[in-house]
Amino acid sequence: MGGLALVYRGPAARPEGCPEAVAELLRSSPHGFDVRYVGPKEELRLRPEVLARAAVYAQPGGGELRPAYRRLRRHRRAVRDHVAAGGVYLGFCLGGYLAGATPGFRLIPGDTDRWTGGGRGPVDGGRDTTVEVRWRGHPRRMFFQDGARFLVPPGAADVQVLARYPDGAVAALTAPFGAGAVGVVGPHPEAGPDWYRDAGLRAPARPTTDLGHDLIDATLDVADRRPTGSRP
Description:
Helix content: 25-40%
Shape: globular
Radius of gyration: 16 Å
CATH superfamily: Class I glutamine amidotransferase (GATase) domain
Number of strands: 11
Strand order of the largest sheet: 2-1-3-4-11-10-9-6-7
Structural class: alpha/beta
Largest sheet: 9 strands, mixed
Order of helices and strands: EHEHEHHEHEEEEEEEHH
Number of helices: 7
CATH class: Alpha Beta
Number of domains: 1
Strand content: 25-35%
């Protein structure tokens, strides 16, 4: 599956660098995406007819949830309709929060909340840091800043947990939505060496790009298995 991949870039995705990192992650995947930015000051605007041309819509990290949602809520129906019709939504950090319900696009079962360390050591939500997650059972250290945990209700159908925080909270998952699919992650697999350097952090010995690619692959696999006409 290749085709057009849209990455939001605009006032709901701050600081600068988050959309560009997600775009680079998509470009470096083996799927051959044509990656374009979409947003209020971009050549492409976030409109239903633009989303209809895309295989993937990616919402990158940014600032706080409520101000971001106020900027994006008028696009909620367009995003939901796009995924329900067979599209793919990828959410990174803030984009993961926006896949939840309070507030958000309501694309995943359950909701989202801040992960603050789960009692196993403080995590300052406003400070760039790293966190060790277990991704498909293997420990990996990732860039983290005020990332989401995903509150999945017991028995939620076809949800695949890709990663968990040290306390067991869900750090990344995929889920179906209508005929499409959603993939979300709380930490930042797209973070490059410059993110760590600028934050005064030691980068992991193994870059986390492969985890971002795994999220993309797993979400596309869910979409490929969805029957046409499925409803959310």
